[in-house]
Amino acid sequence: MVARCVHADAFRLWPIFSAATLRRKLLEVLTCGGGGGSCRGRTSYRSPKPRTQSMPRPRSDRLAELLRAEPSECGDDEGEADAAARKAEVLEELKVVVAALQDGDTGSAGGVSWPVEAATVVRRKAKDDAMAREMLAMLGAIPPLVAMLDDSGGGEELLAAALYALLNLGIGNDTNKAAIVQAGAVHKMLRIAEGASGALTEALVANFLCLSALDANKPIIGASGAAPFLVRAFEAAATEQVRHDALRALLNLSIAAANAPHLLAAGLAPSLVAAVGDTSASDRALAALCNIVAACPEGRRAVSRVPDAVPVLVDVLNWSDEAGCQEKAAYVLMVLAHRSYGDRAAMAEAGATSALLELTLVGTALAQKRASRILEILRADKGKQAADASSVVVSTVSAPQERGAGGQCPGEEEGDEACCMSNEKRAVRQLVQQSLQSNLRRIVRRARLPRELAPASAESLNSLTASSTSKSLPF
Hints:
The chain has helices at residues 19-31, 59-103, 114-126, 130-139, 142-147, 155-170, 174-182, 185-193, 198-211, 218-223, 226-235, 240-255, 260-265, 268-275, 282-295, 297-305, 309-316, 323-339, 341-349, 352-362, 365-398, 417-420, 423-447, 458-465; strands spanning 2-6, 11-15, 108-109, 112-113.
C-alpha cells in the first residue's frame, strides 16, 4: 500500500512505516545530532550491550579514599621521625660513652671508676642491640677496651668489665671480631690467663669462643698459644658452662688444619677420648676427633695411642639414638683402620664386626657407608692374614723332614707314617679334612640330592674325603 502526498505541482509516493521502523528512524536522527541533516556515512545506531568493565567511581569515592589514606601516611612519617629522633639520641649517648673510654680518666663516682662504668655501659648497650654494636665499633670503642686489658692496677673488676664489653661487641659481628684480634686482644688475654681466677677464666674462655668463630681468627688464636689454656680450662673447669665453652672453642680451632700440631702438643686427644663418654659433650668431642685425625697423620697416631680409644669408639656405634655420634665415631674408626694394623686388631678384639654389621642395617646412609668401608678393610686384612698363613703351611709341608739312620724314624717301623708326622702336619691335615667336609655339606644342601643319594652321616663324608688331596681351607 502507498499513501499519496499531493503538492501544488506534483505528488510523491511514500511507503507506510511501521511503528518499530519509525522509532528506529527517530533514534537515528537523534544520535546523528538532531535536525534534518543526513546521517549518511556514520555508524547506524545499535542497541546497547551490557558492559563488562566497571564504570569509573564517582569523584566523591576517590576523594574519600585519599582522605582515608592521608592519616596512615602521616602516621608513617611521624613514626619515621620518632625513630630518627631515637637513633640520634642513642648516638649521642654512645658518643658520650666512647668519649669516656677514650679519655682515660681514672676518677670514680660512687665507688666505681669511670672506665669500669663506661665499659659496663658498653656491655649493656651491645648485649641485645646489633646496631649499637656496629655504632660503638665505628665510634672507636674497641681500641680503648683492648687497652684496658693492660691495666693491672684496676683489678679484676676492670678486667672483667672490659672482657665482657668486648665479648658483647663481637657477638654476631664478624667485623668486630676481626677488629678485636687486630687490636692485639689475644696476647693480652693470654697474659691475664696466667694468673686468672674463676670469674676471669670464664670471661676469657667466652671471649676465645667468640673470636674463634671467625675463620680468619682461627690460625691466629691457634698460633698464639691459647690451646694449652683452653685444654686446661676444659679438663678442670669450675662450672659446666666453662667446660662447654672451652670444648666449643677447641672445636672451632680444630677446624683449621694448621692448628692440629698446637692442639696435639697441648694434649687434646686424651681429653677428647675421655669426653666421649659424657653424653652432653660427646657430639662435639667426636667432631673434634674427626678434625684431628683428618688433619695430619700425627693426629691419627695420637688418637691411636690413647688407651682404650678403639673400644670407646666401638661402643659409640651402639648408640642408636645418637645418629650423629655414630657417624662421627665410624669416621674416626675408618681413618684408624685404613692406616694401622694394630688398630684393626684392636677393633676385632673389641667386637667391632658385630656392631658394624648392625650399623649397616639400621644406621643412617652415611653411617652405613662408613661401616661398610670399615668391614671391607677388616675383611681384606683377614684375607691377607689367611694368605700368609697358607703360605707358611705350604712351606712347612714341603720342607724336608729329619730322619734317623737308614731313613727310618727312631724307635718305629718304616711303614708307620703317623708316628713320623709332626704336630703341625697333623693340625694341617685335620684342618683340611674339616674344610672338605664343610664344603661337601654345603654342596649337598645346594644340590638338594635325594635322601638315598645324600651322605647320611659324618662317617660317609669322611669316607668321601679320605682320599682327597685338596688343600682348600675354610673361608
